[in-house]
Design brief:
With 622 residues, the protein is an alpha/beta fold. The chain folds into two domains: 286 residues, 3-Layer(aba) Sandwich (Cytidine Deaminase, domain 2); 311 residues, NAD(P)-binding Rossmann-like Domain (Rossmann fold, 3-Layer(aba) Sandwich), CATH 3.40.50.720. Strand 5 and strand 6 form a beta hairpin. Helix 3 packs across helix 6. The termini are far apart.
Length: 622
């Protein structure tokens, strides 16, 4: 079976090593475990694989790990033998390279040796087959380094005892050795479920079985007959003729207390004892790959920096963006950065030649032939950037105070349809962003959102100033206000503190609460520079990012939209959420590179959120 030893009648027994076969599903499951469960935990994890003795000729003996490798209770595939192992997943490439592979191998060998000495391997032969998987995975799912250390073994009946004569053949489990061979005086025959296809050599599982036989049975027999059982089906016909049988002389190690020297590191593609690199990028669905990669940075936040961050609240939020201009484009990109999957645009404008340089969702081709509708083009671009996002666009107008619509029955009917559709959109979303150009265009959505108790985030720009604010979230009708913000009751202001401290979310004002007149047509009798939003180019990016970050902070607060408003006075206090303060407003002054966090109470005569207005809205009389 190999080169001759000192005795001319004996040959050195050699074994065909396993070739590790790690399925793509295994790497995907490892990635999910690493991101969501293991995180920075490097403690060993139990895993399981299997091997098969029926592969076609020419194939190597494979130890297979699939997506179910992490479920120790998962059933082993039919006609396959299980192999149990340990996963060592390192956090850094340096830790992977510095791992003491010799020590890991010796530890696994000692575990097998202890199971042999204690007899546990007779009860559960799977213990003879242990493998180690040492990995460092790059979490973009494109590359993974792995070292597979094997000190291997079995499952189906991985090992068994055989007794036969001219007329009969009997098989038994290892634990029945004494009774099964009590009348046997000359030789014993042992069987092994052999995954190897080589005509002259047995597979790797036989190695540890022979150690067990030499340690426990060598005092009775100096040699054993070995049947390497191979069972395959070809063209519907079962065939075991490629099984091999031979006799092995056992070494002298009966009841030896010392563990034999262990071997088993699998060679890499170059035939050396280095790590193996697996490139999975060509095997993965690009859309699934993108989806996992998009979530990567977010989930890494939860590992160490913000372990209490509830990403599900953010990712599952359905966001309605009213306005697909400079603010809308920047808000949408930041929402995607936070993993938000449901984004809807509403706008009635078309893309002009001045837009692409300031509005990052558009390009020059979108301006041709009169320009594409902004809402539709923005939704299409989001899906091209990330196919996993559910982006929709509605090319529609929002009726505004001071802008007459009753020129004809057609325009009046269209306005009614627009209002109905706007109500439906606000009803079906969780967060409404007001990102339009004019003040009056924000009024109707603010009224509808207040009546439906939706979280409203408003952003508006000046030349070098901006305001980002959350509207007060009105308490449900007939709901006791004392039940709201129970964890943050309104306390009397301390001496010297602001009169606007500790204001709960349901008492906060909206964008229109400081108005002394109703909104009207702000573009009438205005020059071009007064009609357009003329602002410093970087202002929209700052305000858009702050609008999304304010939404995320509100969602992370236990009270959500009812959270007590943080003010500038709270900057040195303990923040109410893991992400920090939850302000009512952020007013920025780019000329001074300064922000303030004012708080304002709701105005009981407000044209948008006062009780009289939203009572009328509830009664559908507005």
């Amino acid at each position: 079976m190999a080169a001759a030893t000192g005795d001319p009648g004996l040959f050195k027994l050699q074994f065909a090593p396993f070739s590790s076969a790690l399925d793509v599903g295994f790497w995907h499951e490892l990635t999910q475990k690493k991101l969501n469960e293991y995180r920075l935990d490097e403690t060993p994890k139990d895993i399981k694989g299997y091997y098969y003795n029926g592969d076609s000729a020419g194939l190597p003996a494979r130890l297979t790990l699939e997506f179910s490798a992490f479920d120790m209770s998962a059933p082993t595939p039919a006609h396959c033998c299980p192999a149990v192992g340990t996963l060592y997943n390192t956090n850094t490439l340096e830790a992977f390279k510095a791992a003491d592979k010799k020590l890991l191998l010796e530890q696994a060998a000692n575990e097998i040796w202890e199971s042999i000495k204690s007899g546990a391997a007779l009860e559960n032969p799977v213990l003879l087959n242990k493998f180690l998987l040492l990995t460092f995975s790059i979490q973009d799912l494109e590359h993974a380094y792995d070292d597979l250390c094997q000190a291997e073994g079995v499952p189906a009946l991985p090992y068994f005892l055989i007794k036969y004569d001219e007329n009969t053949m009997l098989v038994s489990l290892l634990k029945h050795y004494s009774d099964f061979f009590q009348d046997q005086r000359t030789k014993i025959t042992i069987g092994v479920y052999d995954p190897c296809n080589l005509a002259q050599y047995p597979g790797w599982p036989l190695r540890n079985f022979l150690v067990l036989a030499a340690h426990r049975w060598n005092s009775s027999f100096q040699s054993v007959e070995v049947l390497c059982f191979r069972d395959r089906t070809m063209q519907g016909v079962r065939d075991i003729t490629h099984s091999i049988i031979f006799e092995v002389k056992l070494p002298e190690m009966a009841f030896s207390p010392d563990c034999p020297k262990a071997v088993g590191w699998e060679k890499n593609q170059k035939g050396g004892m280095g790590p193996r690199m697996v490139n999975l990028s060509e095997c993965m669905d690009p859309k699934r790959l993108a989806e996992s990669s998009v979530d990567l940075n977010l989930k890494l936040m939860c590992w160490r920096l913000v372990p209490t961050l509830d990403l599900d609240k953010v990712v599952s939020a359905k966001c309605l963006l009213l306005g697909a201009g400079t603010l809308g484009c920047n808000v949408a990109r930041t929402l995607m950065g936070w993993g938000v999957r449901h984004i809807t645009f509403v706008d009635n404008a078309k893309i002009s030649y001045s837009n692409p340089v300031r509005q990052p969702l558009y390009e020059f081709e979108d301006c041709l032939t009169g320009g594409k509708p902004k809402a539709l083009a923005a939704a299409d671009r989001l899906q091209r950037i990330f196919p996993g996002v559910n982006a929709r666009g509605f090319n529609m107008s929002i009726p505004m105070p001071g802008h007459p619509v009753n020129f004809s029955s057609i325009t009046l009917e269209q306005a009614r349809r627009d209002v109905e559709q706007l109500e439906q959109l606000i009803e079906s979303h969780d967060v409404v962003f007001l990102l339009m150009d004019t003040r009056e265009s924000r009024w109707l959505p603010a009224v509808i959102a207040a009546s439906k108790r939706k979280l409203v985030i408003n952003a508006a720009l000046g030349f070098d100033t901006f305001v980002v604010m959350r509207h007060g979230l009105k308490k449900p009708k007939h709901h006791d206000a004392r039940n709201l913000c129970a964890s943050h009751p309104v306390a009397p202001a301390d001496l010297g503190s602001s009169l606007f401290a500790n204001i709960p979310g349901y008492k906060l004002g909206c964008y229109f609460c400081n108005d002394v007149v109703a909104p009207g047509d702000s573009t009438r009798d205005r020059t071009l520079d007064q009609q357009c939003t003329v602002s410093r180019p970087g202002l929209a990016m700052i305000a858009g990012a702050l609008a999304v970050e304010l939404m995320v902070s509100v969602l992370q607060h236990p009270e959500g939209g009812y959270a007590v408003a943080s003010s500038s006075d709270d900057r040195m206090n303990e923040p109410p959420t893991s992400l920090g303060l939850v302000p009512h407003q952020i007013r920025g002054f780019l000329s001074r590179f300064d922000n303030v966090l004012p708080v304002s109470l709701a105005f009981d005569k407000c044209t948008a959120c006062s009780s009289k207005i939203w009572d009328m809205s509830d009664d559908e009389t507005i």
